[in-house]
Amino acid sequence: MRRYHAFDPPEYVDWSPDPETMLEFSRAIERDPERARRIADLTAQRRLEIYAGLLRFRLHDIALKRWVRQGVISKAWLGTGEEATTIGPVHALERGGPNGDVVGPMIRNAGACHEMGMPVADMLRGYLATEDSPNRGRDLHVGGRRYGIVTPISMVGALAAVIAGYGLGFRKLGTKRLALTWVGDGATKAGEVHEAFNLAATQRLPVIFIIQNNQVALGTRLEEHHAADGFAELGRLYGATGAPFDGNNVLDAYAATHWAAEICRAGEGPVFLAAETFRMSGHATHDEKEARELFSEEEFASWGRRDPIGCYGAWLVNGRLNLETGAQCEPGAATGVNSAALEEVEARVTEEVESAAAEALAGRARMPRPESAVEGVYGTWPESGRQEKDRF
Hints:
By secondary structure, the chain is α/β, with parallel strands linked by helices.
């Protein structure tokens, strides 16, 4: 994929596949036969859709970073380096809009929104706080029932209880739907998160909790707030099923979530998945310099070699599947064809995101009416807003 010197982390600018890292990538998706089977079942089209999702997420974040540099917005919260932890799981769900599975993203899981069907332009409008943004300019957090997205809030971890409530509702309705949310390593220390985990486990709710360990909570390194060895055993502590996955390997993330979804639909939830990944930027764009001082250059370099988009793209190019015909082939036999397929996807997604940014900026002058601040605050809706209620 194209690299952007002004916006990518320095470790990504001259990225090329590292043989040892690529070997680790392949081993992660082959060591578990059950996960390997699920990955093998992915068609060429599905594999390219996952690649497009990763690109869309990265380019969405780059658009925001460009706006910060241009003074359009003051700062942005990015998921750079963590895209696989979001995109893989979303693609493992039943994305049926208001009647499908439900996700509750943290702000660093913004890619879940566009992969659940929300237009990128609407996501960017959320940052501009324009009248035509999904929440009518009230907050940069966006969602919508029509897409199956529970709108996040600023109190990190607070969605865990909401998602448990969705799971309880799905069970009472007798549906096979499930709810999924991400909880950061730091947010696992919040009391309401424990309450949500415990409720989901005791009630056997169809919920997937992904513990997204990106090694740092705001400016606090993992070892400074967490004494245990990671989060792989967290589910067992609540009497529930759990498993780890490589948070920089989108295929491992997909397969683990696909497996977890089957358990939940069988009435044996919840499932706790532990994702190991790394935040390649600051808590937000305002503290990038300080954030890079939290870890050594060697740590950044190590995680930089594991760029989730670069690794997945290299795996696709040299893989056993011809992405044009969908036929099996010898490893590396379809390199030229596969490279062209990825370039075509990138050109299409780049145009999509650039058009979305231009569309969002075109409405920048349309700010919310002051009196709209009191509309939609409670459960009753004025006649003028009835057609808009599903936007929230």
